[in-house]
Structure to design on (1558 residues):
């Protein structure tokens, strides 16, 4: 077990690396040529169009104003200054609520840490358990003196820990309830204050039953005319444009290449660039690159035209789903919340997601397929969680010296070199695992897509849930009980129900130092790395150099990125779990957690204000999940404490803690009943109020025109747009990414591209990531 | 272990006792003076007013027509003749669907038995496991030769059992799905064909928030006027009439006594009956009984008047709940299915239950109280299930010789007598347990009432669910692993997850003979006892002698009873469980189960046609529960087979069976999604169709008048009625139960009485039972 000094060293290393990141950031962000990397949000908002300093060419790239270097830390107060209402205005409710997750961490753990240090640490310190143990030659460090390990077996001092467990639970529940209440009211206020939006009037109808005599559109129209006679307004069918989307993505890629060669030619007019036609340009006939791509683009444009006509005309091109719009919000709210026919698998209605949040590919899934897919994904996730180590081990074995020797003998001379050998042996297995973990959120996202959710926020929430489970099993439990998840599963199956918490509980105090190190590496240095934005930094400058011709191109080369809820939130949850589990056991861990929450809050507030640009707004629909996971962390911590106590000769405390657990579950159910519906349902009263206000303000509103084309597959909007300019393109060879039109158009294109890849199974998402923000242009 | 001969003897005993019951029934039911005991349904329907035979006085009491004795078994074909649609018409959908539970038992188990006997029995018989075991001195009987015990450890013959497990599961699921589909369509057709009923237009609103300036009624009116402007029609507030109901019940009791003494006086005019005023009439001043009760009744009538005025006038007499009626079924369906305000704990709407099904006492519970109550009841039920043996053992110890000696020394001389001693030692402990088990459904019903469900059918369903769990733990598991449930729980907690199915699995084949005996005692003789109706028989004749003066009184003294869903369905489920568990293990059990289902079907069909009179109609709302419990029996059987197989050296079959279990769970989820909503929700399309039809047929219908007083607390209806005749009562001293008015009045009074007792905690329900049917008079 590590000593205080060991931890001090580790802390120093991590604090220094974090400081280096921060220093680098402080310097880089002051350079005008990085302005678009570190302040893209302001550009997208149109509030900034050029780096702040102006003057000579050099000073446009490097900042020579030394006064600004002196104030290099002033981003910190700046990040904290913006008040929350303004933040919601600036970045949306999702972002503001996301920040509150960090804040809730502080709210929970600061009082818990104070209590814990003022009561439990003295209790632990003045005990003599370790001295007694030392007599039996059990080694321990001075950290253990602060932890529960120092209390004698069966001592009455454990009641202090038990009472504290109650206090911590009560405090956590109190904070959680306050927060749930606050966020529910924030969400309702946000929805209420929003201007008129198509999704307020629209319901997504799925599984429209086929009718021999009518088209889908007619069928939908007749059905709602009859069953919602006073409220039905119009409907838009959903075209199956997946193939079309593929073609458009292909065209975009070709245009990228065209632009690249064009730029190359512009810079060096003497030689027209040439390209080989064979496999990824490595061999084959050489042709003039620009002519080649012009021809290819023309070809594919034609294909797109044909496909588009086919989709629009072909009966099979229409999916059995539609967006049905109503005259009033009340009508839409009613339709979304009710069952239409006696067959609950037909005419399924739900509140339509925002148009840019719709995941179009999944709209056509029939009910049975959904059940089967969901089931298959549950099974797949089970195997992924418990057996992921098997393929990893296989790849690692391939990536070992022996493996390479066998599978690629021609590499023998290279790998025999000592340096390369040590690299392979030392790093490759680790890198394989690291790569898998990097791609894991993307893999889970693909699984969610396969499951058939129709809105991006639902996809993200499902992926986040699975990522949380994976972390819980493989990071948390996997670190406590060393061994693969599968071995754990096996040993759990063979252990009795009351033995499992003991096995884990007894290991908890021992692993405290490991987790302290983990928090510092992942939570401190990792978060500091986030602010540096290394990947977008590199990619922006590469694009800037190779593709950018106009100011507009530069705009599009920016990658503001966004909060990847499904990848980040489950990792925050790990800190809640660690904090709650260790609060009564090893209070020394708490300051590290508190520092993480405070630091991350600061960093992410800065990023949200200056960098991130959310693709969609779900109005904090994720909160019930966040709340639920903190509660489950609380319950896990209680069960593990039961286990720990029973190994400490305090088995009689079990009923005392079981009552606490049951009360916590009761609290969860109460919160669920009380607040959750605010995140799922649109209440009629609210809808009626908005309807009435609107009717009074704009009695002659033509709603139908407003709603007519709100839910057109984004590809058609793009298409129209691309068609308009397809000649223009060949004439003046404008760039491919075009004007920043202040609409929502194309904001979903990157998702479309991803999902077409999800049919395959390459983890394409992270690779697309750099392009994510490029097309976002609503502000 | 019992031999075939043992079982033969047990079967003979039970068949003989069943035959004796049937014979007694056949004779008793032919006696005219029993006509009202065995054919009350026909009297209530008004299709029979006098025993069939007429003639001399004696032949009105005893049947001397010997021809009818020869045909004494002809009730059997008669019970089977009535076709199902007519049965639904005659007894309601609930009863018809209840019969289908027995039918589904036959549908599932007849093919399974055939398959099992033609494949598994030969496989088992031709094995030699027991011969080998005999060499090691393990005793066994010839029944075991037919069971899985006879197959050698690790033999490949077990694959036959595994494949059969698949076949049984697939068949069971197929039957279940067909049945679910059929019953869902029956329910919808039934609801659709029903004539206009108040509950189709009405929504129950609970948790109306208080308003300082408005009464509840005004508040409700304004809220729905605003939020359902096109559909709102009227509302009826709910009065807190619990005290009033108590007074009315008290009055009724007094009148019963009055009637009793009056009749006594009429029969013996010489002496006016006198009564002592002290403790239960044992001592105190003697007064004239009739005068005394007349005065008492007058007093209480006055009290009732005062209380009634108070309830109607007092603001606090109005509960924060209301029945809100709409102009159309569509409007009601919308309101019931939607959330009204952003606070999901206020203005809670749900489809109103039938007026006679409302459980009035629970209408006023606030949301938090509901959560707490539900939670408390969960905990209480947990303790009831696992620790019920503790108070029972305590009472048993009191009821033992030693206990009586200590607590009541003055009884010493009596209990010293040998006969009484042996009775106490032999019977009393058993009787205490039996009494507890008899009252258990009533106790569970009281728990449901405490939980705050507002409709009788919901109360019954919850009680049934709990009773099922109790049976599962204490009867099924308790019989397999001998020992109290608490000991089981303890040993389960200390066993590993994969050890538990083994422990149970290995005990299953051994317990087959025990369960065969159980089926014969509980299922054969018990069901035959049902048709005899011993309790109603005795009570009817007692009442007939002591209270009945007019033909009307006789009508009211009848106790048709009804299917006690919460008490009987969970017991049927035990047979499903036994059948499915033993089908692959000990096929010899199946014929016994099949006989039970067939016999019970016959008996209950007869009872439903001739006797039972349901208090309310829930249109088979209980089916999802029945379905779910059969599925869970299936899953239990699979898990136990896994356990059994792994003790039989076939642990490698575990994945094979786990897949089956997972598929079964998947099937359950599919069925839930596909069919369950038909039992919960009123789809808009159906509502619209009925609305449209009605509008076309009766364009000038005055719906408001129809709905105005549909949901008045039954006590007020009674009250008005009683007031009308309160003078009349004192004049001509008519009996208290009065005319059979063809309305729904007072149909819920007995429940009202119960629930007021549920505040106490005496298991009052079974005692009220005999009076249950007395007040039902709608036909």
């Amino acid at each position: 077990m590590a000593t205080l000094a060991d931890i001090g060293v580790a802390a120093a290393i991590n604090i220094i690396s974090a400081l280096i990141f921060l220093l680098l950031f402080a310097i880089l962000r002051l350079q005008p040529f990085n302005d678009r990397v570190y302040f893209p949000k302001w550009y997208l908002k149109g509030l900034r169009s050029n780096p702040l300093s102006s003057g000579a060419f050099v000073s446009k790239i490097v900042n020579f104003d030394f006064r600004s270097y002196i104030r290099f830390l002033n981003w910190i107060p700046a990040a904290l200054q913006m008040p929350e209402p303004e933040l919601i205005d600036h970045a949306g409710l999702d972002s503001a609520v996301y920040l509150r997750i960090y804040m809730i961490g502080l709210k929970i753990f600061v009082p818990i840490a104070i209590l814990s240090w003022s009561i439990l640490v003295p209790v632990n310190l003045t005990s003599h358990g370790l001295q007694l143990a030392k007599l039996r030659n059990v080694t321990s460090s001075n950290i253990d003196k602060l932890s529960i390990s120092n209390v004698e077996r069966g001592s009455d001092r454990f009641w202090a820990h038990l009472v504290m467990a109650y206090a911590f639970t009560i405090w956590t529940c109190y904070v959680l309830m306050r927060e749930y209440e606050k966020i529910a009211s924030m969400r309702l206020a946000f929805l209420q204050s929003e201007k008129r939006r198509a999704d307020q009037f629209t319901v997504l109808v799925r599984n429209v039953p086929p009718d021999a005599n009518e088209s889908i559109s007619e069928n939908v129209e007749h059905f709602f005319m009859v069953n919602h006679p006073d409220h039905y307004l119009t409907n838009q069918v959903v075209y199956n444009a997946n193939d079309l989307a593929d073609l458009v993505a292909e065209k975009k890629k070709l245009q990228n290449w065209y632009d690249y060669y064009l730029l190359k030619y512009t810079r060096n007019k003497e030689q027209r660039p040439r390209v080989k036609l064979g496999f990824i340009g490595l061999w084959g006939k050489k042709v003039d690159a620009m002519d080649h791509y012009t021809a290819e683009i023309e070809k594919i444009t034609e294909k797109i035209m044909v496909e588009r006509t086919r989709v629009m005309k072909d009966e099979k091109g229409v999916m059995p789903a539609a967006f049905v719009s109503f005259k009033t919000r009340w009508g839409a709210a009613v339709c979304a919340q009710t069952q239409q026919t006696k067959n609950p698998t037909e005419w399924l209605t739900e509140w339509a997601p925002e148009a840019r949040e719709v995941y179009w590919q999944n709209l056509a899934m029939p009910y049975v397929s959904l059940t089967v897919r969901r089931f298959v994904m549950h099974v797949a996730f089970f195997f992924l969680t418990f057996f992921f180590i098997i393929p990893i081990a296989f790849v690692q074995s391939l990536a070992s010296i022996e493996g390479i020797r066998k599978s690629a003998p021609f590499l023998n001379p290279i790998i025999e070199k000592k340096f390369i050998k040590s690299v392979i042996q030392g790093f490759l297995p680790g890198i394989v695992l690291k790569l898998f973990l990097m791609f894991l959120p993307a893999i889970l996202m693909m699984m969610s897509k396969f499951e058939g959710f129709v809105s991006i926020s639902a996809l993200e929430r499902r992926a986040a849930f699975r990522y949380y489970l994976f972390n819980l099993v493989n990071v948390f439990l996997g670190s406590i009980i060393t061994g693969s998840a599968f071995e754990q599963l096996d040993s759990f199956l063979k252990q009795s129900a009351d033995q499992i918490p003991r096995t884990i509980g007894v290991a908890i105090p021992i692993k405290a130092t490991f987790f302290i190190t983990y928090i510092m590496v992942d939570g401190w240095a990792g978060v500091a790395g986030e602010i540096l934005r290394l990947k977008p930094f590199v990619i922006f400058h590469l694009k800037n150099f190779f593709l950018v011709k106009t100011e507009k191109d530069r705009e599009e080369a920016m990658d503001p990125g966004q909060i990847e809820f499904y990848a980040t939130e489950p990792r925050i949850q790990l800190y809640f779990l660690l904090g709650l589990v260790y609060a009564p056991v090893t209070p020394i861990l708490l300051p590290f957690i508190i520092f993480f929450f405070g630091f991350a809050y600061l960093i992410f507030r800065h990023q949200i204000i200056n960098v991130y640009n959310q693709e969609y707004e779900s109005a904090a629909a994720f909160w019930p999940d966040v709340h639920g996971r903190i509660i489950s962390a609380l319950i896990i911590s209680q069960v593990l404490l039961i286990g720990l106590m029973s190994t400490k000769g305090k088995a009689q405390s079990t009923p005392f803690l079981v009552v606490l657990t049951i009360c916590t579950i009761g609290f969860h159910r109460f919160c669920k009943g009380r607040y959750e519906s605010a995140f799922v349902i649109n209440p009629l009263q609210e809808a009626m109020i908005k309807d009435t206000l609107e009717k009074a303000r704009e009695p002659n509103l033509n709603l139908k025109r407003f709603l007519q084309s709100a839910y057109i597959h984004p590809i058609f909007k793009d298409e129209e747009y691309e068609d308009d300019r397809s000649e223009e393109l060949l004439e003046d060879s404008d760039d491919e990414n075009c004007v920043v039109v202040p609409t929502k158009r194309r904001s979903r294109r990157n998702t479309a591209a991803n999902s077409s890849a999800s049919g395959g199974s390459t983890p394409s998402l992270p690779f697309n990531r750099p392009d994510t923000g490029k097309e976002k242009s609503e502000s």
Observations:
- The longest strand of chain B covers residues 318-326.
- Chain B has two domains: 4-195+367-680, 198-353.
